[in-house]
Design a protein that fits this description.
This protein is of the alpha+beta class and 509 residues long. It has helices spanning 2-20, 82-94, 96-120, 137-140, 165-231, 237-252, 254-271, 300-306, 308-329, 374-440, 446-480, and strands at residues 64-67, 123-134, 146-158, 294-297, 334-345, 357-366. Helix 2 (82-94) crosses helix 5 and helix 5 runs antiparallel to helix 7.
Length: 509
């Protein structure tokens, strides 16, 4: 009768736990809404349909903004450079930051499995032991005072998730997995963008160095003519010194460019997961890169689903919401069910004989009565953490929209700047040619020639910088829009779906 009564009580406890298991305390998470002001445009004033163009100049083609067009996953291939494509792929395969991000994702996945195993299923433990004991003579009576005791048992314990603490804990753990997944995508995007922009910077420095050397060669030729004129007494020494000074200044600008170029090459090597001294990197020039003329521009309403940093911030917000549920459930009673079956005998062969076996079934209800306000304080702390995560999410969204707006304006402005700079370079070259001819004929002073040389040098280097800016702006736009990872097989979107449920505070118990 006693055994039957215990079994009935245990069954009733299990039924009660099952009836309550559908209740999960705390707020249900809902994706934050897209900012209302993001429905139409990234910028306060509308952008033109296409940028300005500079005919006959590398990187001077007009670019068209195509609203709503999808960005390809391998966006760097839009620059039509096989060498760049190969280098980006090598970086994604060999850079340690990618390996670290992927390892963090695997760690989060295994941590989730560990928590799910311990929370969703009963714990079952077996125990087998043997002990040699000696009783005090007064306790042993007429029996043997020294004996061997064998014991074996199996214990089962389970804590039903009555108020949803386990579910909220696993919800938070899953959010951490999704956070790490989007961190992998963010690392993927940042790494590929860094390779592209560094390659563009390397190409720009190559072009600046070439332009500076061209100016240096022209000044050296002019210096040779002026030295002959000085030897013949046709010009004063001040003219000779001015030309030498001009050439020395140009020569002084070469080593910093060479240093910056070497450093950009070193950075490319490290980004590819190689030591700087290994070599073997491709050479990049502006002419080897094709400026994309069609610029896919995602709709503003889609940006929050595309930027991996926004998605990662959203998952941190989700985890903070789940933590409120965990803290809320901790304020309610906790039911624990346990049972054991075992045997204890002085002979191993008698283990689990009827007279040596014992079993137990038990249920335990633990309810917090007084804890000095600790549980309430933990809940308030979880709510404050949620508010902080929400603020950080909004900051991430604002920064993302700023990145896109800045990139779009830069594309428009830098295209106009390149057009103007191309005209300035052409005029400076024409003015220098005319000044050189006039100086030979004695029509202008040497100071006027120096001014023409200086103007051409500045205009020529500025033209190269303006050309490189358009390539860099294009890469920056693709990065700001999220890089198209959602169009890649195996991207984070394929494995991450957040359920639509009431937002924090709207239906929490």
């Amino acid at each position: 009768m006693r055994q039957k009564y215990v079994q009935q009580q245990t069954a009733l406890a299990l039924l009660a736990a099952a009836a309550l298991s559908g209740c999960a305390l705390g707020p249900d998470f809902k994706r934050p809404e897209v900012p209302a002001a993001a429905g139409s445009s990234y910028t306060a004033t509308a952008l033109p349909a296409q940028t300005a163009s500079a005919a006959g100049v590398t990187g001077g083609a007009a670019q068209q903004f195509v609203a709503g067009q999808e960005l390809p996953a391998l966006w760097w291939q839009l620059f039509s450079s096989p060498a760049l494509d190969e280098l980006v792929r090598a970086a994604l395969a060999g850079n340690p930051s990618m390996a670290a991000a992927e390892a963090s994702l695997r760690q989060a996945q295994e941590s989730y499995k560990a928590q799910a195993g311990s929370l969703n299923y009963p714990s079952v433990n077996g125990q087998l032991g043997v002990a040699r004991e000696k009783l005090a003579p007064a306790s042993a009576g007429n029996g043997a005072g020294v004996f061997t005791l064998y014991n074996a048992s199996v214990a089962v314990a389970y804590t039903p998730d009555v108020f949803g603490a386990s579910r909220r804990t696993l919800e938070g753990a899953q959010a951490q997995v999704d956070y790490q997944r989007f961190q992998v995508e963010a690392t993927y995007l940042a790494l590929s963008a860094n390779v592209v922009t560094t390659a563009i910077r390397s190409a720009s420095l190559q072009a600046q160095l070439k332009a500076t050397q061209e100016v240096q060669d022209a000044l050296a030729k002019q210096l040779a003519v002026i030295e002959k004129q000085f030897e013949l007494g046709a010009i004063p020494r001040t003219t000779l010194l001015s030309q030498r000074n001009q050439l020395a200044q140009v020569r002084a600008s070469v080593p910093p460019l060479e240093k910056a170029l070497a450093q950009s090459r070193h950075q490319l090597s490290v980004l590819a997961g190689r030591l700087p001294g290994e070599g073997g990197l491709p050479e990049f020039t502006l002419e080897s890169l094709t400026l994309p003329q069609q610029l896919p521009v995602s709709l503003p309403s889609a940006l929050v689903r595309q930027r991996p940093d926004i998605r990662a911030s959203e998952e941190l917000l989700h985890a903070a919401s789940a933590a409120i549920g965990v803290a809320t459930a901790a304020q309610y009673p906790q039911l624990t069910l346990s049972g054991s079956y075992g045997s204890s005998a002085q002979s191993f062969g008698k283990l689990f004989d009827a007279e040596t076996t014992a079993w137990s079934l038990a249920s335990n209800l633990t309810a917090p009565i007084f804890n000095g306000g600790a549980l309430s304080a933990k809940k308030r702390a979880a709510e404050a953490a949620y508010d902080g995560a929400a603020a950080q999410y909004r900051a991430t969204v604002l920064a993302a929209f700023q990145d896109v707006a800045d990139s779009l304006r830069a594309l428009d402005s830098d295209a106009a700047a390149l057009k103007a700079q191309a005209e300035a370079d052409a005029l400076a070259a024409e003015a220098l040619a005319l000044a050189t001819q006039q100086y030979k004929l004695g029509g202008i002073s040497y100071l006027a020639l120096l001014d023409a040389q200086r103007s051409y040098q500045q205009a020529h280097v500025a033209l190269v910088q303006a050309q490189a800016a358009r390539y860099a702006d294009t890469a920056a736009l693709f990065q700001a829009l999220g890089g198209g990872w959602w169009n890649r097989n195996g991207g984070a979107a394929a494995a991450s779906t957040v359920s639509a449920a009431p937002v924090y505070g709207s239906s929490g118990r």
